[in-house]
């Protein structure tokens, strides 16, 4: 299964406004949740039908509709017509494999971004496509699975935190994107911790497993970068966007988003370089160790080769080998061997081979 | 045969408006197909002569003329004069080795792009130059071979899908380019699947074949990138173009094209880096395995070298070697050898060589 | 502990104006110091309560308030309300893990930057987040620990150096940032000295320790770059900023800051490349030495292998080996061996193996 | 001789308008050729003196003066005064080592570019500096050697090809630059063919010669890139230039030039990467083969080392070695040796060493 | 001693207008030289005191004051007050470790750049900081040592070369910078010659010394790049500068400066890549040679190992070894050995190991 890009042959040539869910079904039933508030009032509810939602759009309050699960195309169609959206917009929402993007339509702004979360059980990173449809008074957020990642925002709304209760849909959008980007930072910081731990053991005990780990971290990092880099582009173009639905007053917040996503992006770049450096260091260490091994073998071989040769000489069965009959020949041989060995050792010592 | 760039010496210095087909003939006969439609009516036909086409250009409808095969220069000349085009335009269409480009002429816009398709039989990627001549009411598309890649668009026209039947030539152009870019994504995703599969077997069983595969994938990727990178440039300049023939209403679609081609481009960049990483990992793994081999050889040699030396000593034929005549000498020698071997083994154990 | 990025899971989803100190407590008690001056008068004092400070803000003088230690949230809140700041501003000040940034608020400009200092005792680099809140007549600087790094500026103020006593808060800001950037240059120059010293010993005596040192310097450099690169971005955007609180007359100074931070950044880039080059050179040297080792072993082995073989031949116990009984056989064998050895030596000499 | 940059110490500090020929003399005598034309008339001639040329400049026709050979400074001075040029312009023409550039002067535009041609005899690439002085009605082209590279353009002029006979000096300039750029493409395509051929033999039969070839191609490519990269810059700045001497109508042609030079530049970038990849692949292949060699040596040694040791044991001359006197000892030894060898083989088989 | 960046701890926190000479004293006494000229008159003199100079500034002529040596702070102060300069300007002049820069002050423009010169005696590159203070009628140039590098310009002034005698201080500035940049080109071309010579011997005779040379050239190149890269930035920003002291008429000259510094910069980039390629090629060559060495050792060992083993077998002293007593055993053994050796040789031949 390809991870980096997935393109289904069946989807080539489809009209851009065809409502086809192109992802994997990650939740059984579509969940519709609504939070409607202004600075004084608050309504929060799970709803069953789109009709119940649509009446909120003409109120003067801020309405946040959260849709968990995208696979039920008929519900999507209902939302499309209830809020008078272009089918193009909803088709984009369903296209979960697309690149993070901001598109301004006639009566709304669409923002899509990948959400990265660390699953505390499996310790794996989960990716999910988040789409936000932003109008003057309504924010519709679409998630692929039932998620409680935005719970802190709901909490802040409930607790009547001033800024969020007085802000419009643009501030709410910022609050959601802020959580997404904070999760980027969190996920990278977890990976980074592993990478920096590896660095410390790299030089102490280099072994084959380290290559596996470096490789795994590279893959994971590539995977994160694939989401973070276009998200950065998206957020920068969002901050520059002259949208009707994003007010002046939230600009300072979008500036902060820019800084945070830049930090995430920088960190992913840095870790990428660190991993490359680690592989290099490892390779050089390995080569250095090979030298030590070969020096060891060479010293050992070179000392014994002439000694064994000498023993071989006096193991020959020639009838006339004068040395064999002298009484002290054997001891002289030993003496000679020791002298040769010592000279060799001094030679290698001099060459700084050990 | 060079793949990356092909320049025929004979073509140097030709006037830019000389109608010479510079590619390879990939189809026997030029095919002319016409689809003429507005929101209510639809005419679809294969035609034999250019005359039959030319009458459509003054109607108020959208006319899509599809020309398969470029080698028949006389037909090209007829089209040129029938639609009152600059010969420069047609010369560009015939120059199939050129870089993807958008050029605005006085009475038309020319768009050229490379089409990449996966041939399902041979599993190879086929490249073809696609040229689009865009005027207010006529779109002429030129393909090098008979292709059914645009069939989904024809289908949408036939099925009276609103957007395409109400759109102009600019929307039609978008629809065709969209298919081209979707095919980029598809072709890359196929290659990417192979690359990511390779990654999994890289560390388990590194062998010479992997270098071949990495090399092949690199070549294939270079080949794709050669088409995708300038296509990206072209599409971005197209989106910025202030053309008479591309209306405001299609801007949102061209934005999507930009995103898709960026995704294709990013993916090709990512896979490129992954392949480089794989080669690095492979090289480091190989070096690491060499260390293991040499450690093995060294341990084995270093243990046996002194033992064989001792045996050699007592194989000498000196007349007076005192040890030879002691009754237990042979067993003492064995004992000594075992002690040496054990010391050696402990030494290597201590060095963590195994 | 991760160094490059640190993100606490508890902080995800907090409102941007929540006053939470996100760093480590590095000082016991918050220190408030005040310097108030114009060209003629000077007041300098340590104060205990925020009230004592707040009265200075309406005077016509320049007031510099230095806050050492950020952990006491209630003092921060007092400052916030005393100077009528947005809580967002103070939340940024407390967020010491954030990226260096300039943000313009309604009634102030916030500048944050990492301070790098060389601790002369441990010879390690200390990082600290510096935040500056700049209004027309007040500059509030926040440091994480009690620091005397700005003492030279205080000295200049006391000594009635004209420029600083006549300048506004913008000039004072420049003076502080100038010290921060000068410390960057100083810290890099210290590291650079070590790196360039390493270079000299790299080729003379390559050994495993050099990899450790290269790796350590890389880590240290990465660590510095992490602060310097975004600081450069920040200073360039600061110089371009059309702020109410930064006057025309200080532009020439901000230009100088740009040059200095660029110099620091260039130097860090250069040292990065030098370290990579060093690792490459080291790896190549190691490989080159391995060739020498293997040449040595090969020459030695290849000369003795056939000699030992010959000795082995005449050590066989066949009953009929004609050579054994000739009187001069033993000496002929020696002659033959010497001839073989000389031929081998000439062969290797010819191959330039030694 | 340096190829990449050549700077004569004597030329440092010369005034910019000093007419000194700084290149090598590549032709014996300066050749002056003139082609004067409008849509109906054509004069073509070799002339001896500058006087004969100067009268053409006030006619309403397009006059193309081709100067082959730059070493005769007095002729250059005559041209300078005949056409009332700034001496700066002519000094630039004579400075053949300079970077390709476009400079607008008061009464002319100067364009310089390197011409790359493949010499079909030696199969080497020849470089030559081409300078074009462009005024309203006169184009003076300066070449270092007698060249027939522009013959196709002359042919087109003679054959009364409409576009070129109706165009002005700007169209003529385009036609010449087009040939230069086409030659870039041709030269690169020739080199590219060699590089892609190399790729095919790289994995089949890696040997030392391949390094030489890769190195040679790298050098050649560097050499080409040195001309192509600044030429690209030059052509892009030319296309953006708001010159009096380049009319609106030729903009579409300059756009094509941009595309072609970009294609040349892309191809040179691509080949550069391919060569780097090839060297990497080669290095990895070599390392992989080394593993095979060492495995082979290790397997062979490790099998025979204990066998030879055993034989050595029973070659000792101890008086009391019980095994020696048993009748079947010799055969038992053989059996033992075979068992050891088989166990070893199975061990290596299990380790997948062969 | 660090070369890339030097920061004295004592200088941190100094006011920007403190006149402290931060470099090394490179000349004993400060030399003041004056050249005052217009198109007709010329005064040239060495002066002792600043007073003698200051009277020139109100004349209508162009005055070029050359100051060799910066260590005498009191002279610097005199110049500052004589020409009514901001002390900031002079502080910049004395800060010889700073980055090349252009700064516009109220009544002057300051230009600083590093001068690189090849010392013909030691064949080393000398660096020196050049500062130019440019006003309407006065140009003050500051050098660190007594230099005659600008002698050609003085010569041109003396010889009444029109352009320089009629030009203003801006043209004079160009003339000086032109010499500086020409020296860059010269210094690089000298280094380049060495690098390209190295390339030719790289493949013929690779040895350890080559690593040293590559490393030395890398260091030298890094050193040059450190001056050239910021100089390029400086010159480009100078050309874009809307200064009161740089007239329209010199723009064409500054364009040329841009081209020349770009050429120097490109060349340094190119050589950098060539050196990296050389190291790569060298490393690969070394690895390739190691394969040859190991093949040689393996072939030799593998042929003799079984032969020596066989000889060992028949050197055993078993009482009953049937082969020993056959008369032709010895010759059969030789035959067997030869057969084994030939088979081995054919095997390796087949494997293309030699």
Automatic annotation (TrEMBL), chains A, B, C, D, E:
It holds the Pfam family CorA. One of its GO terms (cellular component) is plasma membrane. One of its GO terms (molecular function) is cobalt ion binding. InterPro entries: CorA_cytoplasmic_dom (IPR045861), CorA_TM1_TM2 (IPR045863), Mg/Co-transport_prot_CorA (IPR004488), MgTranspt_CorA/ZnTranspt_ZntB (IPR002523). It catalyses: Mg(2+)(in) = Mg(2+)(out). It is a multi-pass membrane protein. Keywords: Cell membrane, Ion transport, Magnesium, Membrane, Transmembrane, Transmembrane helix, Transport. The chain crosses the membrane at residues 296-316, 328-348. SUPFAM superfamilies: CorA soluble domain-like, Magnesium transport protein CorA, transmembrane region. It comes from the Bacteria. It is found in: Cell membrane; Membrane. Mediates influx of magnesium ions. Alternates between open and closed states. Activated by low cytoplasmic Mg(2+) levels. Inactive when cytoplasmic Mg(2+) levels are high. Belongs to the CorA metal ion transporter (MIT) (TC 1.A.35) family. This is Magnesium transport protein CorA.
């Amino acid at each position: 299964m390809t991870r980096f890009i997935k393109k289904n042959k069946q989807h080539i040539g489809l009209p851009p406004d065809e409502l086809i869910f192109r992802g994997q079904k990650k939740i059984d039933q579509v969940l519709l949740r609504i939070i409607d508030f202004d600075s004084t009032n608050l309504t929060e509810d799970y709803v069953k039908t789109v009709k119940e939602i649509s009446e909120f759009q003409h109120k003067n309050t801020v309405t946040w509709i959260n849709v968990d699960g995208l696979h039920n195309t008929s519900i999507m169609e209902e939302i499309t017509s209830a809020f008078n959206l272009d089918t193009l917009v909803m088709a984009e929402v369903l296209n979960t494999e697309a690149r993070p993007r901001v598109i301004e339509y006639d009566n709304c702004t669409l923002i899509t971004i990948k959400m990265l979360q660390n699953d505390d059980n499996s310790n794996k990173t989960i990716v999910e496509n988040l789409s936000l449809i932003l109008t003057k008074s309504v924010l519709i957020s679409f998630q692929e699975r039932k998620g409680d990642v935005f719970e802190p925002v709901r909490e802040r709304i409930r607790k009547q935190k001033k800024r969020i209760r007085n802000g419009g849909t643009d501030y709410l959008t910022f609050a959601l994107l802020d959580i997404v980007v904070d999760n980027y930072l969190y996920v990278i910081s977890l990976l980074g911790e592993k990478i920096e731990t590896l660095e410390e053991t790299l030089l102490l005990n280099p072994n084959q497993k380290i290559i596996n780990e470096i490789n795994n971290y590279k893959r994971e990092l590539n995977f994160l970068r694939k989401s973070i880099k276009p998200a950065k582009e998206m957020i920068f173009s969002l901050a520059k966007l002259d949208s009707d639905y994003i007010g002046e007053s939230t600009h300072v917040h979008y500036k902060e988003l820019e800084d945070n996503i830049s930090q995430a992006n920088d960190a992913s770049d840095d870790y990428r370089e660190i991993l490359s450096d680690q592989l290099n260091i490892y390779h050089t260490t390995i080569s250095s160790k090979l030298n030590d091994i070969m020096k060891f073998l060479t010293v050992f071989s070179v000392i014994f080769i002439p000694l064994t040769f000498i023993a071989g000489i006096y193991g020959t069965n020639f009838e006339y080998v004068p040395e064999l009959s002298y009484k002290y020949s054997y001891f002289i041989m030993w003496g000679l061997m020791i002298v040769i060995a010592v000279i060799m050792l001094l030679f290698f010592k001099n060459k700084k081979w050990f």
